[in-house]
Amino acid sequence: MDKISWGVIGCGNVTEVKSGPAFNLVPNSELIAVMRRDAAKAADYAARHHVPKWYSDAAELINDPAINAIYIATPPAYHETYALQALAAGKHVYVEKPVTLNAASAARIAGAAKNAVGKLSIAHYRREQPMFLKIKKLLAQGIIGPIRFAQLQLFQTKSNDLIAPSESNWRMEPTLSGGGLFHDLAPHQLDLMIHFFGDIKKVQGLSLSQDSEFGVDDLVSGQLLFENGVLFNGIWCFTVPCGEEKDICEITGEKGKISFAVFGNEISVTVNGEDEYFSFEPLIHVQQPMIAKVTDYFLGNADNPCTIEEAIKSMAIMDIFTA
């Protein structure tokens, strides 16, 4: 195998810019088919993005012999079913985040992957973006000394623009999404903490539905104690008034702190009272660096950038925070 030929299950809005075009932009990768249950929309997507094939049946795409890798970009409720089918068909599989509705579902995918011919990777794509690679490097260099704690605040109004628009409000349907914007956005942040700090010793949290007509958690607070002694505190609120929005993560060490917005493009490093700033150009296709790394992994030229076992950790945290 010298090229990854992709098929996409779920060519909705999230694939229009964030991920879809990137499959034809990275080396040794091509997008040859897309699937959506609405045949007219699948055909329209294929025509607009110059994709050779389209399907309205996932099984037909999965069993297309020209396809050797499947990208699953449906709502999370369908991830497990399609991942198991694709792995059983011998295909490589790249699954959107959150990987599933809960940790138990993700564990079933992990079990199937152990005996599968194809490889499996999860789309915690911020790991491979330049800004977060820089943060990980700064931490490894010990710029701010031994880490003491990290704290994160994500406050948004009920009508925010952090998520890709969709034709239906499926993120507010717990049976499809797992439960509101926390379930959609927190995987990015929690996965980065796992990526930065490693294994977790203890998890605790609280959640409330204060102002949600859908009954999903719109206020979540949680703590993580990592095996290395780093303590993480996070709070998410999706009902703050206009003007009170906030997206900030601060990692504090013995010598200073690193501050950044998870959904931003700048890092601030403070050491001994001196500030240094690093700015990054917004990526047009935010998943392109991750897709490049996953393609190399599928071809046997790189390690897995995000395993299912790592994704299960963030799912397990969210399960506890929102229990």
Relative strand content: 25-35%
How many distinct folded domains? 2
User: What structural class do helix, strand and pairing data support?
Assistant: alpha/beta
Radius of gyration from CA coordinates: 20 Å
Distance between the termini: 44 Å
Q: Write the CATH architecture name of the largest domain.
A: 2-Layer Sandwich
- The helical percent reads 25-40%
Order of helices and strands: EEHEHEHEHEHEHHEEEEEEEHH
Domain Gfo/Idh/MocA-like oxidoreductase N-terminal: 5-123
Domain GFO/IDH/MocA-like oxidoreductase: 132-258
Keywords: Oxidoreductase
GO molecular function: nucleotide binding; oxidoreductase activity
Verbal overview:
This protein is α/β, with parallel strands linked by helices. The chain is built from 9 helices and 14 strands. It is globular, with a radius of gyration of 20 Å. 30% of the residues lie in helices and 26% in strands. It starts with a strand and ends with a helix. The longest helix is centred in the middle third of the chain and has 18 residues, at 180-197. It has helices spanning 39-48, 58-62, 79-88, 103-114, 130-141, 174-177, 180-197, 288-298, 308-321, and strands at 4-9, 29-35, 53-55, 69-72, 92-95, 120-122, 147-155, 200-208, 219-226, 231-237, 246-253, 256-260, 266-271, 274-279. The strands form 2 sheets. It has an 8-stranded mixed sheet, covered by helices on one side. It folds into 2 domains: 4-125 and 286-305, 3-Layer(aba) Sandwich (Rossmann fold); 130-281, 2-Layer Sandwich (Dihydrodipicolinate Reductase, domain 2), CATH 3.30.360.
